[in-house]
Design the sequence.
């Protein structure tokens, strides 16, 4: 009776299918953050209230998607009691889903500013091109995050980890402009660009965090001996 | 030979000791966030650069403490393969440590603003009392978070979940003041109070998130059947 090996083999197959399901859902969440950021940055830089509403509608669902994914991960942990790399993948999935949820919220906040100021603009002319670039960098980083979650390639993960430098630079540039003597905009613009710049920067931070987790998964010193 | 039950009993004892260790470390991290916020709010409202430095020094350690705690949790998951409530406690510990890490970073950011503006003040007179109250509410919430992680009392957890309402109100008040016709401060003040207010609000959010997790641990529908 080769029942035991068969059952073990079947358990392993079930587990692989479950891991794939986790990966598919992470990719979907990452795709959502790209969709939200694409719409949010257009809404913000072009005062487009319809796109803002669409961004906010998708952002409103990310919390539930993260919750559902976390529940799936916990169910797998309970059923399969994975160790070593399998366990690391699942714990990383929990952290990555938390980052993706925050990315959805942050890009939703950018859309909310645009919506709040409509039909006016939330950005004065002096910073328009800066925010166009920041938004496009965040969308690009979001797309790379999708790709990374699909291929989990460690070199690609390392590459992405340096890519928020330009976003950080633009974030500092926003403050330089706002704090310069030439800045004569009202406080509303100052508040809006301060927060929007912060949200863009945090979005990029989370992509870097996710990349670091994927690197760690592949290369990290993992020691389950105490 | 009653070896098996003995071993099971011993495993259970080891597990309880490990869970206690996780709890002790979470409490320590929460105590750190209180210490950071106490120093940061004083630094920020009284332009005290020494307290700002002390706050930043503690905040700099929170990342490593969170990492060490997460590693401990992963080791326990690998060794003990817990299910049901035990598994939930450990997964919640991962999430709570992430929130505590962010709370340390956010209060550190408040101290960093104070340090950056020293010897000047980062807050104009019109908002001084608002930030004194916000800071003191955050410290109070932090202390309740410490207490909650010690006693994990579900009624207390529910009580805390409503307590960020006043912080949210003060956060909105900051914007009302900044966007009113009476606000004639320079852009530097506008930027500083906008970000500081956001950091205070997010700190309180995380306490609410932690309370929600503790409630869920005690009352949540937990179903490990698929």
Sequence:
């Amino acid at each position: 009776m080769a029942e035991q090996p068969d059952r073990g083999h079947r358990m392993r197959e079930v587990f692989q299918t479950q891991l794939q399901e986790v990966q598919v859902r992470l990719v979907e969440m990452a795709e959502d953050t790209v969709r939200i950021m694409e719409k949010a940055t257009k809404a913000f830089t072009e005062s487009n209230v319809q796109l803002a509403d669409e961004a906010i509608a998708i952002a409103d669902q990310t919390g539930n998607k993260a919750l559902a994914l976390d529940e799936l991960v916990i169910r797998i942990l309970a059923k399969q009691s994975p160790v070593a790399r399998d366990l690391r993948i699942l714990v990383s999935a929990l952290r990555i889903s938390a980052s993706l949820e925050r990315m959805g919220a942050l890009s939703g906040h950018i859309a909310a500013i645009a919506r709040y100021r409509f039909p006016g603009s939330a950005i004065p002319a002096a910073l328009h091109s800066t925010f166009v670039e920041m938004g496009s960098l965040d969308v690009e980083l979001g797309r790379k995050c999708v790709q990374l979650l699909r291929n989990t390639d460690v070199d690609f993960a390392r590459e992405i980890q340096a890519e928020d430098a330009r976003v950080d630079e633009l974030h500092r540039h926003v403050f330089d402009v706002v704090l310069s003597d030439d800045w004569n905009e009202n406080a509303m613009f100052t508040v809006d660009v301060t927060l929007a710049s912060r949200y863009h920067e945090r979005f990029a931070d989370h992509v870097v965090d996710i990349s670091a987790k994927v690197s760690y998964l592949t290369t990290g010193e993992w020691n389950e001996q105490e």
Q: What stands out?
A: Chain A has one domain: 3-219. The CA atoms of residues 39 and 51 of chain A lie 5 Å apart.
